[in-house]
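The following block was generated as part of the benchmark described in Methods. Ligand: zinc ion.
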Amino acid sequence: MINNDRALSHLLDLLAVEGPSGQEAKVVEAISKKLVSAGCKKAWIKTDDAHKRLGAGYGIGNLIVKMPGTIKAPRIMFSAHMDTVPLCKGAVPVVKGNRIVAKGNTGLGGDDRSGCAAIVSMAETILKNKIPHPPMTLLFPIAEENGLHGSRMVRFKDLGNPAMGFNLDGQEPNEIVIGAMSAVRWKAEIKGISTHAGLEPHKGISAGLIGSKAMAAIAEQGYFGKIVKGNRKGTSNLGSVSGGEASNQVMDQCIMTGECRSHSQAFLEQIVKVHRASFERAAKSVTNDKGKCGKVKFSTISDYRAFRLRKSEACVKIASKAVETVDLKPNPLIMDAGLDANNFNQKGLPTVTLGSGSHKFHQLEEYVDIKEYLTACEVLLDIARLAS
Ligand SMILES: [Zn+2]
């Protein structure tokens, strides 16, 4: 059903549009124009205010297209992020054999314009051929690459409260991401007391010593780097250390930052708990001659939460069936990184992530496999049919 020439030209057009994170206005314009000429009413298309809530550095909101259904069924959502990594600035896409590559010394941006173009091609095919379909929301989030910000800011009521989601942001068209891990960033702000290191070191409290003791304690308990406790697994890292002013001055300030990850939310909380307790104990253990001890403020930011979709979940069943319809074997995956779908699942919208033929993300060697991309377009069309 997909018109391959049109699907390919949508992809080439969208790959040529520049749109780093926070500057997606031209992508919004290009996708909207294509959808209007495909038969979308202008009233169905809008952008939300995600950029205003994110603040400086964000020029436009998430692009949301709400298509009414021609049959009564729960609303489904298709999504693909609009932004590309800085490496893709100035990309000129060219066809080389069965691949699309960047002509010059840039990334291509198939991550995730191949997903955007596949959704546009699917919607065009449905509208032009008057294929019966459920109510559908097409969501094109901003700012995925710099921290899943657009999807985090999305309000489900703006999307028409879809019942399930199909996110496009991957490689082979048979891959179905059904789970991902949790990640937390932590920061320890340690306060000591500064004195002359030669004359009165005993009156000072070294923030550096507190940080060192805390990290040593974390490692001794087996919670540094690769963490394995029975069948529970995770990782932790110390990413940066800054503090102190001079070698003859007791260090009164030290800031340490790091991260922890696990596929289990409960175990991640345990890893964080060990970090927090180790810093607090270390702060109490370093005292000066008056018996005063150091202080630490330990804070965390949740990057994304782990999720695991059941095989019986409607979006998993429909995506698997659609992949089988194009004669491929579904490949369910658990990701070690974050996707927009993490935010949707976290907020209660069951969402799988599928591939659209893009490979070697964030590299100069990035390419889109044309056959895989066209297969992904067919898979999307089958999803819309199967959800009816
Ligand atoms: Zn991506």
